[in-house]
Automatic annotation (TrEMBL):
Gene3D superfamilies: Medium-chain alcohol dehydrogenases, catalytic domain, NAD(P)-binding Rossmann-like Domain. InterPro entries: ADH-like_C, ADH-like_N, ER, GroES-like_sf, NAD(P)-bd_dom_sf, Zn-ADH-like_protein. This is Putative NADPH:quinone reductase (Quinone oxidoreductase). Residues 18-329 form the Enoyl reductase (ER) domain. It comes from the Bacteria. One of its GO terms (molecular function) is oxidoreductase activity. Pfam families: ADH_N (PF08240), ADH_zinc_N (PF00107). It comes from Deinococcus deserti (strain DSM 17065 / CIP 109153 / LMG 22923 / VCD115).
């Protein structure tokens, strides 16, 4: 390991769980990579709904404080820990770790690195791992999507939604996009959505049926939860699949088993964190995504970009549904 001259850095610290403004900008020690780890000079951090939930203490896993949030980022390889090979300092990489990216430097296990196609900017690279791997698994690994098939994408202008539309179109699927505002639907259309519907359109269930020749949708990427989950079951085609990816409404959803039986529906959960340990699925997704991103067929959608000191505002804007694409924080400014 090379000795580092820098000993302190700016980073966000959460000491108690709650609303985004519990995060504070602090001077923190620069982390040193242990064996098998790599230190990155962080250029851009992709902010996910999961980061907001983690700070609130409402994520799928327990949040231990104090901690520095930030699971997904891009930056320049700075220092290699003992035993790390196959990576060079000075190269831009994307990383997917648990926490720690909302700082000028972050340390990740070498296994958490994701190679970045050269045509991506730092912000695009930071917008890539979570949304695109999740979209790929929702459509292919668990959704078994076939060309020509319909898919329904909720929160279609968000980070996962825009990734899902792009990937679905690259896979020759027909897309029904739902979102809360006309501006968001316009973005979905520019990405290729075939049918767009306001989330609160009173005729939405019928319109989904009409768009699909009366059958309903064979594949639904469900991210809102609550009463929308039941609605997704109504919109699904016989033998359709509802992939449960999120619960942005933070409301409980109810499931009547009889409803699944009557129309032979399948409900499948998807959590990227646990799928990442499936090496075969991850390798396949990485290869396919690298081809699509490398060829320019798919371009990560960078949303609003904030300085590190404005992290709490970035989190709040995401939670308040003010953002489209991937929210980015740049720790070097
Ligand atoms: P987004 O950029 O999509 O932002 C969240 C969006 O959710 C909002 O823009 C909003 O879109 C929609 N939404 C609907 N209802 C609400 C509500 N009551 N409060 C706030 N937002 C609401 O975020 P992400 O791409 O990070 O995540 C999207 C969803 O996918 C989340 O549920 C997240 O947890 C999930 N996810 C799950 C993963 C997994 O591994 N299981 C991985 C990645 C994401 P609109 O205004 O159009 O309704």
């Amino acid at each position: 390991m090379l000795p580092s001259m820098t000993t302190t850095m700016r980073g966000m610290l959460v000491e108690r769980l709650g609303a985004p403004d519990v995060m504070e900008l602090r001077d923190l020690p620069v982390p040193q990579p242990g064996p098998g780890e790599i230190r990155i000079r962080v250029e851009a951090v992709g902010i996910n709904f999961a980061d907001v939930l983690a700070v609130a203490g409402e994520y799928l896993t327990r949040t231990r404080v104090p901690y520095t949030p930030g699971m997904e980022f891009a930056g320049i390889v700075d220092v290699l820990g003992e035993g790390v090979s196959g990576v060079q300092t000075g190269v831009r990489v994307a990383g997917l770790g648990g926490t720690g990216a909302l700082a000028e430097y972050a340390v990740v296990p070498a296994a958490g690195l994701i190679p970045v196609p050269e045509n991506l900017s730092a912000a695009q690279a930071a917008a890539f791992p979570v949304s695109y791997f999740t979209a790929y698994h929702g459509l292919k690994t668990l959704g078994y999507a076939q060309p020509g098939q319909w898919v329904l994408v909720q929160a279609a202008a968000g980070a996962l939604g825009t990734a899902s539309i792009q990937l679905a179109k690259a896979m020759d699927l027909n897309v029904i996009a739902m979102a809360s505002t006309e501006e968001k639907l316009e973005l979905a259309r520019t990405l290729g959505a075939d049918v767009t519907l306001l989330q609160d359109d009173p005729d939405r269930v019928q319109k989904v049926k009409d768009a699909t020749g009366g059958r309903g949708v064979p594949l639904i990427l469900e991210v809102v939860g609550g009463k929308r989950f039941q609605e997704s079951l109504k919109m699904a085609a016989p033998r359709g699949r509802v992939i449960v990816i999120g619960n942005a409404s933070r409301e409980p959803a109810h499931l009547q088993p009889g409803e699944l039986m009557k129309r032979n529906l399948t409900v499948t959960g998807l959590w990227l964190t646990s799928l990442m340990s499936d090496q075969e699925a991850t390798r396949e997704a990485a290869q396919e995504l690298a081809k699509l991103v490398g060829s320019g067929k798919v371009t990560p959608q960078v949303g609003p970009t904030y300085a590190l000191a404005d992290s709490a505002r970035a989190f709040q804007d995401l939670m308040d549904r003010k953002t489209t694409g991937k929210v980015i924080i740049e720790p070097q400014r």
